[in-house]
């Protein structure tokens, strides 16, 4: 797994001073690494009969769509406010400074559907926790929250459902 870890680029002081940003574009741009990431993540959920894979804007769309294709599931988008055209359900959540809001189409997940949620990086867990709340409110049954990488020292998984978090890589 070290090859996948090493191909992710650390960008210091982005988007603000003191943050080390895990830039996954270097992994996405490498054909073998991208395929390996998708295959390794999808492998865990083969046979789980996933109905929908929810991808979180924007890098989660790439991972989520690839997983959905492999698993024969539908793709659902969770977006920043004002981007989804039809009726939406929204959730506002706490950031370190201030708040943020995400939206999902109200008919994107049906009651009882088995849902996998995908994003690139688990940091403080605020984003994924909001997505979990939205999918649950629509009646979806969350199978797992999966990530390419987890920043363990931030403890984000404590905000997420017990036993329903998987990260391919940890930093
Ligand atoms: P959080 O809500 O703190 O778990 O932040 C998760 C979201 O912010 C994800 O969608 C990540 O893409 C992004 N993110 C937060 N921190 C980082 C980081 N250090 N490097 C890359 N992406 C990050």
Report on the architecture of this protein:
This protein has 171 residues and is an alpha/beta fold. It has one domain (48-170): Rossmann fold (3-Layer(aba) Sandwich), CATH 3.40.50.2020. Helix content is 29%, strand content 33%. The chain contains 5 helices and 9 strands. The longest helix has 15 residues, at 31-45. It starts with a helix and ends with a strand. 35% of the residues are buried. The model has no long low-confidence stretch (mean pLDDT 97). It binds adenosine monophosphate. Adenosine monophosphate (AMP) binds next to strand 2, strand 7 and helix 5.
Furnish the topology, listing elements before pairings.
Blueprint: H1 2-7, E1 9-12, E2 20-23, H2 25-28, H3 31-45, E3 52-56, H4 59-71, E4 74-78, E5 88-94, E6 99-105, E7 114-122, H5 126-137, E8 141-150, E9 165-170
Parallel strand pairs: 3-4, 3-7, 7-8, 8-9
Antiparallel strand pairs: 1-2, 5-6
Helix pairs in contact: 3-4
């Amino acid at each position: 797994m070290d090859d996948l870890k090493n191909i992710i680029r650390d960008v210091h002081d982005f988007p603000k001073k003191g943050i080390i940003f895990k830039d996954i574009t270097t992994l996405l741009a490498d054909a073998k690494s991208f395929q390996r990431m998708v295959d390794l993540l999808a492998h865990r959920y083969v046979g789980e009969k996933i109905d929908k894979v929810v991808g979180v804007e924007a890098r989660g769309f790439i991972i989520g769509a690839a997983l959905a294709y492999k698993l024969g599931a539908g793709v659902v988008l969770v977006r920043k406010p004002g981007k989804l055209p039809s009726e939406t359900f929204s959730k506002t959540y706490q950031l370190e400074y201030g708040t943020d809001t995400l939206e999902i189409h109200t008919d994107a997940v049906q009651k009882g559907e088995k849902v996998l949620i995908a994003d690139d990086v688990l940091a403080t867990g605020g984003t994924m926790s909001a997505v979990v709340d939205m999918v649950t409110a629509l009646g979806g049954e969350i199978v797992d929250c999966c990530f390419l990488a987890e920043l363990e020292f931030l403890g984000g998984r404590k905000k997420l459902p017990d036993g329903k978090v998987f990260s391919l890589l940890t930093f």
